[in-house]
Amino acid sequence: MPTTQAPTRALLDRRYLLTGGPWRALFYLFSTLPFAIPVAIAAGVLALPYLAAMSSLSRGAAPDGPVLFLMIVSLALLLVLGPLVAVPLGVVERARLSLMDTRPLPSPHPPSPADLVSWLRTRYSEPATWRELLYALFLATVVPAAYAIAGFLIIIEVALLLGPFFVNGGSAFWTIGAFEVRTPAQAIPLFLAGVLMVPVFGYLAGLLATGQAFAARALLGDRTGLELHQVAQSRARLADAFDLERRRIERDLHDGAQHRLTSLTLQLGMARLDVAPDSPAAEPLTRAHDQAKDLMVVLRDLIYGIRPQALTDLGLPAALRELAGRSPLPVAVTVADGVPRPAEQTEGTAYFAASEALANIVKHAEATRADILLARAGETLILEIRDDGQGGADPTRGTGLTGLADRVAASGGRLLLSSPQDGPTLLRIELPLIPAPAPAASLPAAGRP
Prior knowledge:
Strand content: 5-15%
Order of helices and strands: HHHHHEEHEHHHHEHEEHEE
Low-confidence stretches: 1-5, 224-230, 232-238, 440-449
Number of helices: 12
Distance between the termini: 50 Å
Largest sheet: 6 strands, mixed
Radius of gyration: 32 Å
Shape: elongated
Structural class: alpha+beta
Helix content: 55-70%
């Protein structure tokens, strides 16, 4: 999956013109035309009776009977046939949206019966269908008007750039506003102005594409929860103090409690060897030894949960694969190329977010599998956990997701959630990618060069 930024964030990037953003925006805009033009023509034909009525009203006369009849027919055709066009158009537009925004936008339509009558009854009763029709009208009205204005500006830009080549110092001349150009020398200032305006058109393309993508996401997603939304997060978390306390607890458990429990287990094992099997103390001593060994496993898992050794020694990808191997569900881990090892705090936050997400999937999602993706988008570390469960995760119904979002926010990141009813669920964690510091160079031993 490509890991580009959301369109608004990409447009605000200072390096926007040096990225592929303007070219993606241009491709998105030009690929709109094959869909917007037929929809605009159809909408224009349906709007003709209303234009005729407005013309009559402007002359002070009421619309006659045939015009009123055609107005009713046009409205009926829009309401009856419009959804049949808007629903497949919504499918195409949600797919095309990935050109500008890689955040998933699942279909807002739940599964419907296979027979045609039930499908039509279901689709015509869904608010999502009428929002898709509204988006089709947006393509037929707002998009052509915006593209026409942009096209007019492009024509002026082309005229500025080609002006010196179309004047020859004779009778031929052309004007731009108050400027009259008769010679190539007079066209040079306008040519330079056109050159300076070229970057502006890169941003203009990005602005148009971003606005259209925003409208598509707003109208073609599910307002009840299908669209990715940022979970409420608190920014008043003491991340450094938390990490310090976590290390202290881990050290105390590992160096203190675990060693003493290991010693106790060994002593109980030695005591069992010294006690005869038929002795009254043999059975209680065996039970105590077994309980001590079980407690060793519990304590080892507790220490592992604080910060697993694989995370410290091998890094986040290896720790995620180990986490997937310990899960009762089949979990596939994909690590994109070019992901450096992040700082310890970022690494720990990403790992524990994945661990908490998998635990929630096992407990609540009724899923059959899960997928973990670790990737990089610029200076952002992306962690996505997807499952095929029942969906419907809602941060307002409990503190689990909100607490997880707080933990992510403490590291300067954010948590995004897409969890429609009937699934799938996608949890996306975005963390600032601070590379881990390079290991300090060891000093040469005394007496060596």
